[in-house]
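Hi F.,

I've been meaning to write this up properly since the lab meeting, where we talked about keeping a consistent format for the predictions we share between groups. The idea is simple: the sequence comes first, exactly as it goes in, then the structure tokens exactly as they come out, then a line or two of notes. No screenshots and no reformatting. I'm using this chain as the first example so we have something concrete to point to.
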Amino acid sequence: MSDFEYKRAVREIQQFLRYISLTERGIPYLVADGVFGVQTEDAVKIFQRIFELPITGIVNTATWERMRQEYLVRRAIADR
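Output, unedited:
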């Protein structure tokens, strides 16, 4: 994965978490800057705790899929 692709993926994770944070208390509102720093890692851990995933701070396949699913559900509801 190139640096550009990595930053784009991190930005997408941050955007998902930011949108989910609008309805899930506890998840901090993130700036989508493409940097996987402490704030992003902490937000991932909180997301994992809320959705009963292993708390690692790493966005593995299970975390990514659940994050994407939660984002899409909230978007579908908002778009009604």
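Notes:
Helices lie at 3-21, 38-50, 61-78.
The CA atoms of residues 3 and 9 lie 10 Å apart.

If this format works for you, I'll send the rest the same way.

G.
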